[in-house]
Specification:
Blueprint lengths: L2 H6 L1 E4 L5 H15 L10 E4 L1 H4 L12 E5 L7 H5 L2 H11 L3 E11 L7 E4 L7 E2 L4 E7 L10 E3 L11 E2 L12 E2 L8 E3 L6 E4 L5 E3 L8 E10 L3 E2 L18 E4 L11
Antiparallel strand pairs: 1-12, 2-3, 3-4, 4-14, 4-16, 5-13, 6-15, 7-12, 7-14, 8-11, 8-13, 9-10
Length: 264
């Protein structure tokens, strides 16, 4: 584990994911969004709340989508999950036996409130200890402060899992909760080019802002856990959602001693 990751709670590796894979992922997203290709089994396409409730009508279907979740059955998206350079970095951070989970392509279109409040990802996961989980987030397009880049509060991973709640916003996307009363004055903005990849601790406080441009802001993300972690929910469903996270577990390297993942 690098000293920077240990101290700050995140690292960024520039150009880690190659341009050809980035292009294939973007093309696949657009084809699904516009109805040109069928989605894979279990792939969940999520519209922005303002679109779903009729407050905003996008010019194209893709401009209304906030996420595509649970993509491990998708032949294109799942190439990201298994990308060797990415897994090598993850292995160096959390160990040899790796489970991939919580897979998503994150879309932040213009003209809607696509903010994600400052939060800690450990809230959504049953595995412990926390330092055996890492989030991995790769830019699929140029990502800037203007179009809603990630923000991190360095060192905040050294604290505890804090109380979360929905912010007092007019439009609230499902499960976009945030840390209550957080001081955001020390946050840093992660501007990234396509292929740049952030690795971050599940306790670090992070989020993202508005897309103030007329272009798109898109990224792909997966969380990884060491397969030797304890499941503190004992196989029960997520505390915040009706969906079980086990639907999206995949063994990607090493062994699965606790049988968390479906058989290959």
């Amino acid at each position: 584990m690098s000293d920077e990751y240990r101290e700050r709670g995140f690292i960024v590796r520039r150009g880690l994911v190659p341009a050809d894979l980035i292009g294939e992922i973007n093309a696949r997203f657009d084809a699904i969004a516009e109805g040109q290709e069928a989605r894979a089994d279990n792939l969940q396409v999520v519209r922005n709340v303002e679109v779903a409730k009729g407050f905003h009508t996008p010019e194209t279907p893709g401009l209304g989508i906030s996420k595509m979740n649970f993509f491990h059955n998708d032949a294109v998206f799942s190439r990201y999950t298994h990308h060797p350079a990415l897994l090598d970095e993850v292995q160096a951070l959390i160990g040899d036996d790796l489970i991939a989970m919580n897979s998503m392509v994150l879309n932040k279109p213009p003209n809607v409130d696509g903010r994600h409040p400052l939060h800690q990802d450990l809230l959504y996961f049953p595995f412990r200890p926390a330092h055996h989980i890492v989030g991995v987030w790769t830019a699929l397009q140029e990502i800037t402060r203007e179009n809603g880049c990630l923000v991190m509060i360095p060192g905040s991973h050294q604290g505890e899992l804090l109380e979360h709640d929905y912010p007092d916003w007019e439009h609230l996307n499902h499960l976009f909760v945030g840390v209550k009363g957080v001081d955001a004055s020390e946050r840093v903005h992660l501007e990234m080019q396509p292929g740049d990849t952030a690795f971050f601790h599940p306790l670090i406080i992070h989020g993202s802002g508005f897309n103030k441009t007329q272009g798109m802001r898109r990224a792909i993300a997966v969380h990884y856990a060491n397969a030797n972690c304890e499941d503190i929910w004992a196989g029960q469903k997520q505390m915040l959602d009706k969906h079980s996270p086990r639907d999206d577990y995949r063994l990607v390297r090493g062994s699965d001693p606790n049988g968390y993942c479906p058989a290959a």
